[in-house]
Specification:
The chain crosses the membrane at residues 21-40, 52-71. The structure is a single chain. The protein is built from two helices and no strands. The protein is mainly alpha-helical and 77 residues long. The relative contact order is 0.18. The radius of gyration is 17 Å and the shape is elongated. The protein has one domain (15-76). Helices cover 71% and strands 0% of the residues. It has helices at 15-38, 46-76. Helix 1 runs antiparallel to helix 2.
Length: 77
């Protein structure tokens, strides 16, 4: 039988929560943003499309991650 998973109440920033919120927010906000921005750019090959999505997605991810971290630090830090 697997070990029982207990709940925790960490002091300070819960980095697991930061990672989960970053993941979800990046997908929810990033996918529509990449789609909208791609309309203004001519992307003729799959390679160009993939590189565009990675470049824009990286910016969205870092902005989201920093925002979530700073929010959690302000609220729980």
């Amino acid at each position: 039988m697997p070990a029982r998973v207990e709940r925790t109440d960490p002091d300070g920033i819960d980095y697991g929560r930061v990672m989960q919120l970053t993941f979800v927010a990046t997908i929810v906000a990033g996918a529509p943003l990449v789609a909208m921005l791609s309309l203004a750019v001519e992307l003729t090959t799959w390679t160009e499309r993939a590189l565009f999505a990675v470049r824009v997605g990286a910016v969205v991810w870092i902005v989201t991650a920093l925002s979530v971290y700073l929010y959690e630090r302000r609220v729980n830090g």
